[in-house]
Design goal:
single chain, about 200 residues, five-stranded parallel beta sheet, four-stranded mixed beta sheet
Length: about 200
Amino acid sequence: MRKGLLIVISGASGTGKGTVCKKLLAELPEVVYSISATTRKPRPGEVNGKEYYFLSVDEFKTWIAEEKFLEYAEVYGNFYGTPLNKIEERLNRGDDMLLEIDVQGALKVKKKCPDGIYIFLLPPSLEELKNRIEGRGTENPESLSRRLKNAVAEIKIGLEYDYVVVNDTIDNAAAQIKAILTAERLKVARNADKFDFKGGF
């Protein structure tokens, strides 16, 4: 049985990571979403245990002490982390695991799991990124400025990834990521067992 793919998708805030990941999950039943834990407050419509595990700061620090995270980081004053629980188990069972995490966390995962697939999502332009963040209606001028400044720094870190996808439309971005996954599944290194023809001629 082939080991599942560890798929890591990152991008600057406002790039549309969440929307692209939802589309991929709807179209790829073999891919399982790894739910992150966070100390940020839920946004309207978000459900604990579905989009995130929403933890208090004390709970999050307890998880850190108990080494329950594959990685964790502080982003915009909130903690985010990838729970270790079940990831290795699901990968060994052949399930493909999708992690939607920030660049800090992704680089930590890459050190621990170099055989993962690291995809960086870019906006079509910085102006479009600004429009998307403003469109949320959740930022004041100060926090908007901070997010945009951080976005430029995060985009530079994208050079550390394996693949880049420009999210001009959700459909295009999802199609390109699906093409990446198809190619990765066909790599010789992942299919060595297919070359073992029993008995020969």
